[in-house]
Amino acid sequence: MSFWEYLSTRHQQLLADAYQHASAVFQCMVVATLIGVAVGIATYRTEWAASLATLTTSTVLTIPSLAMIGLLIPLVGLGVAPTVIALTLYGLLPIVRNAIVGLRGVDPSLVDAARGIGMSRPMRLVRVELPLAWPPILTGIRIATQMLMGIAAIAAYASGPGLGNEIFRGIGSLGSKNALNQVLAGTLGIIILALLFDAAYVLIGRLTISRGIRV
């Protein structure tokens, strides 16, 4: 069976796996973004706290994804739970680091001006600092998303959702007539999803970053 014939006969299953893959990555990125930006806000003013946050998230990233999921299985079982936890943890480093860099890069004179017109610290953060720090934060989100697209495939080891199931089925049936088709379909699907997500982030950047900041 050719690759195109395989796609035509399995397109419904592949679309379902692609949807689950994209959904898992998107939901984990939302959680990782909320946590990562919050950690960045809490630590960027203090050198030791920022270093600790960066070191901790960097350490998580050094753990092999297969080992991470394997360690989580005895704690939370198979399926979605280990996938969500692992992906969220792996997505933190680029977001935390870029949030700290972005917030530290805000011109102090702008913050002083906002303070001078009576803005409280939370208001300065929301209306001045975070908007100016958004470009590097968005870059961190883009990097984290590309990482998680590939790592999410390993979730199939723990019966997680996504295109990794197609890849693992192909690897598990090496020598069969459709083994290569399965691996290729899963891999190409992940690449296409990664490109679509990145295009969406480019559009979000154009809509949310003012032209002056982009320049």
Overview of the structural elements:
- The chain has 215 residues and is mainly α.
- Helices cover 82% and strands 0% of the residues.
- It has ten helices and no strands.
Key phrases:
215 residues
Percent of residues in beta strands? under 5%
Radius of gyration: 20 Å
Overall strand count: 0
The low-confidence runs, each spanning 5 or more residues with pLDDT under 50, are none
Residues in helices, as a percent range? over 70%
- The structure class reads mainly alpha
Overall form: elongated
Task: Please summarize the sheet with the most strands.
Answer: none
With helices defined by DSSP (H or I, 4 residues minimum), what is the helix count? 10
Summarize the structure.
This protein has 215 residues and is an all-alpha fold.
Task: Indicate the topology.
Elements: H1 3-43, H2 47-62, H3 65-76, H4 80-90, H5 92-104, H6 108-116, H7 121-151, H8 164-172, H9 179-208, H10 211-214
Helix pairs in contact: 1-2, 1-4, 1-5, 1-7, 1-9, 2-5, 3-4, 5-7, 6-7, 7-9, 8-9
